[in-house]
Design a protein that fits this description.
about 60 residues, 434 Repressor (Amino-terminal Domain), 2 strands, globular, mainly alpha, 5 helices
Length: about 60
């Protein structure tokens, strides 16, 4: 699943560890999601979107 997490983090100057703390997962989980090695659960996807104060569709992009 493609995502914009890296871009959204950079805009806010957040580290992976900071985002992980905000959503209650490990930094390794954020790294794996960001790099497309792991698809988050629906609840985690919404938590990430909430952390960025945006919609889940703005964070996670469908592959065509």
């Amino acid at each position: 699943m493609n995502n914009t997490i890296r871009v959204l983090r950079a805009e806010r100057r957040w580290s992976q560890a900071e985002l992980a703390e905000r959503v209650g997962v490990s930094r390794n989980s954020i790294n794996s999601i960001e790099n497309g090695r792991f698809d988050p659960s629906l609840s985690l996807a919404y938590a990430i979107a909430d952390a960025f104060e945006t919609g889940v569709e703005d964070v996670f992009l469908r592959q065509k």
